[in-house]
Amino acid sequence: MRIRPTLRFCLATAATAGFLVGCSDQHETRGKEADKGSAHRPAASRSGADPSQGNARAWEPDDALQRAERALDAYEDDGTHPDLVDADTSYIADRLTKTYATPGERPYRLDITCDTDDVEELTLTLTRGDEEQPYGIGCGDPEADQFNIPAGKPFKISAAPVKGGAGLFLWRLNTISPDDVEGCEDDIKAC
Fold it and tell me: Residue 74 gets which letter from DSSP?
């Protein structure tokens, strides 16, 4: 017996529909079982909010990195034309320490941000020789913090580790035109 092409198509469609319905039932059953298992465990919260209030979400490194990149990119249309020297990231549970040489004539600008599960502000310290200046970095802010550093002597950025904390720092070091320096010309000396 020969099956007509139209009938073959109908049989394939019916078989696919039956398969999908079976998968859907299986997914609902697994979802209910997962909900039962997690009913007594609070979800991780970036803001420290009570998960029962419906406004909590788990902190995920990939999502945090994307939010941090958006904060750094917030200055793309500010009229400056920075030249990227370095871009890096560090988890807040690790000690952040990085030293940069500052050769050339153009001033440097450090754009830095943080994104954490439950910390609103972290302390970043800028050091050059005996000069040291701590700054509070707002975590999760829509725009990164910016620091101007003149060319010449090397400088270091550092932050103490946050034990048991989930979060990251993301930064870019750029050179900029002297005309593009806004505010303090040397944030390590602090104006």
Answer: T
Q: How many C-beta atoms surround the C-beta of residue 148 within 10 A?
A: 19
Q: Which helix (H) or strand (E) holds 37?
A: helix 5-38
Beta bridge partners of 111: 146, 172
If we measure between CA atoms, which residue out of 176, 116, 129 comes closest to residue 148?
176
Q: How far is CA 38 from CA 41, 42, 45, in A?
A: 5, 8, 15
CA separation for the pair 128, 178 (Å, rounded)? 20
pTM score over 0.90: no
In Å, how far from its chain's centre is CA 101? 26
CA 168 – CA 156 distance, rounded (Å)? 18
Rounded mean pLDDT for each run of 10 residues along the chain, 191 residues in total: 43 43 43 38 36 57 89 78 93 96 96 92 97 95 95 97 92 94 92 79
Q: Which residue has the tokens 């910390």?
A: 119
Cα distance between residue 89 and residue 125, in whole Å: 16
**In the block, residue with structure tokens 């975590």:** 139
